[in-house]
Automatic annotation (TrEMBL):
Pfam families given in the database record: K_trans, K_trans_C
Protein name in UniProt: Potassium transporter
Listed GO CC annotations: plasma membrane
Main location as per UniProt: membrane
Transmembrane spans: 66-87, 157-178, 198-214, 221-245, 286-313, 334-356, 368-390, 397-418, 424-441, 462-481
Organism: Corchorus olitorius
Recorded family membership: Belongs to the HAK/KUP transporter (TC 2.A.72.3) family.
InterPro entries found in the cross-reference section: K+_transporter, K_trans_C, K_trans_N
K+ potassium transporter integral membrane domain sequence ranges: 29-284
Keywords per UniProt: Ion transport, Membrane, Potassium, Potassium transport, Transmembrane, Transmembrane helix, Transport
Domain K+ potassium transporter C-terminal: 475-699
Compartments, record wording: Cell membrane
Membrane-related topology note: Multi-pass membrane protein
Molecular-function GO term, any one: potassium ion transmembrane transporter activity
Amino acid sequence: MNSPSEEFLEQGISQQNLRKASCLTVVTLAYQSLGVVYGDLSTSPLYVYKTTFSGKLSLHENDEEIYGVLSFIFWTFTLIALFKYILIVMSADDNGEGGTFALYSLLCRHARLSILPNQQAADEKVSAYVTHGPTETWQSSALKSFLEKHPSFSKGLFIFVLLGTCMAIGDGVLTPTISVLSAVSGVKLKITGLHENYVVLISCIIIVGLFSLQHHGTSRVAFMFAPIVAAWLLCISSIGIYNIVRWNPHIFHALSPVYMLKFLKSTGTEGWISLGGVVLSITEAVFWPVFIVATLAAVVGSQAVISATFSIISQCCALNCFPCVKIIHTSSKIYGQIYIPEVNWILMCLCLAVTIGLKDTNMMGHAYGLAVTTVMFVTTCLMALVMIIVWKQSITIAVAFLVFFGSMELLYISASVYKVPEGGWIPLVLSFIFMAVMYIWNYGMIKKHEFDVENKVSMNRIVALGPSLGMVRVPGIGLIYTNLVTGVPAVFGHFVTNLPAFHQVLVFVCVKSIQVPYINEKERLVISRVGPKEYCMFRCIVRYGYKDLQQENYDFENKLVSGIIQFVEAEEDNTDYKPTSLACGELGNLDFDAEDHTSTNSKCRGNTEQSSAILETKGGMGHSGSSPLKAESLEILRAKESGVAFILGHSYAKAKKSSSILKKFAINVVYAFLSKNCREPDVVLNVPHTSLLEVGMIYYV
């Protein structure tokens, strides 16, 4: 029985295993949420009141207008934050995970919209892949059918998801900038002669300090920040109560939505434009203590979006939408808390560039508003699809949800779009850059997979070579890494053609992601046999979720050999299933005629339903039973003792000569640059350099 911490390491914190967590763990997470989640929400009053009443609207700062703005704030928080997100969107979690990609992952599983090319029917049997739910309706069936028949619409949905994702990453640049600069700018109220450049310099120093702390991990940073947020919440609530009693006890009238209409009527176009910056304001007599707390709280408020950006990039890497980067899991107890060094420093540089370049919180506020409202609208659209396809609700309910919340968000977006020349262009430019990177990388990876499929070696050719494969079989195990889940990769054809010797045990290893957040360790490996038994060739598919740990501490070699041995033993000993049908099923996938194989194995028949066995591997090398290991298992163990070699194919993409200039730039420049500078597969897989052999190939797209 695994301990709770081991459960977290294997599966992460999800709704199912959260019930098993100790009370201390839950309390710890709740405490840490103060330093991450609530920090972002509570620091909004620092800057958006100033943004709302900027421009010509500064001439309308009377009670009527203030009531109107406060009414907008209250009902925006109530309707969007409370009703939409807490009561509806959070119910559409993907095994405990949320966000744009989590919603898209749900849709992909239920409507077969997968953006990953090497998916199999066996993947749908993973426990986290569960698609059971309410009975299928004609509306959900019709929508699924429409998506399947119109791939262009599916691609458009994918681009729409990328837009929301990239806007969220842009939020990770803008939130630290506007929060810190707004808080530091407050000092000019007391020191009126302070030059703007000093404010920018102090803000930059704080931003550098904030990003320098990230390598300590979300857990430690949250523990350090939580008391600051608690102090900040205490400050603004106390000051708020004092101001209400002292200055305007009638402020509660603003809770009436009537004041929203009065505000728009009295302010006209300027009032509509100001909606891009609607939020509460603060004033205080105890300036310096609150100023210090506010500055610290502004730093804390940035932590939420920084942590979220790390999580988003991690998901994008797993789903082939972003180049591989180094992902460090910073907690041994709470799974999912990560740190990405490259992304951290890129965010810091972008934050510094925006701070130094703009120096104006109003312009930053306009940019921030467009980024946030766009993410909200993308979420609303995805939720409408989830309601129909996943929850099996009627189209009427989904459309009502879309119209009600979408209209509010479009109102805010329209106000923010009007401010594009005054800073709103920043998230658009950032999103365009990130979208271009994601789309080009995804396109290149898809073309690479198509190249591998088109150039895989025929199984008939392999069988024709005989059990020796036309070369000397030397002691040891050869692991050939490939993106293919069926067939023999082209890289093996190079060895068959050019090298005089190869290992006595060959394993084709495919490491792939599935569109679920986590894969249980017991379902990690899928072992099958390739070709006739005497060829001693196997396939191992290693499956990960988009939030799973693919790190150096994974004891892969021993688990792989243990899995193969268990497969061999089960193939020979287990009378409940027919082991030869496993080989037939695999050979059927490899375009090999099962009837021709009958002469090699007379027991083989046409049953190809089960081509692989999902094995429970616990890292041990021993046999679970009391009987001795079979001859083939002993041979595999001896091969393991002789050494393991790793063979990786290194593919280089080139655009065809007939391609357009834009495509040549995207493939030959952008994709090539990303491929050269991303984390190499051998590093991700922790392959020892002394046992590594790389084979280069060029493919044209």
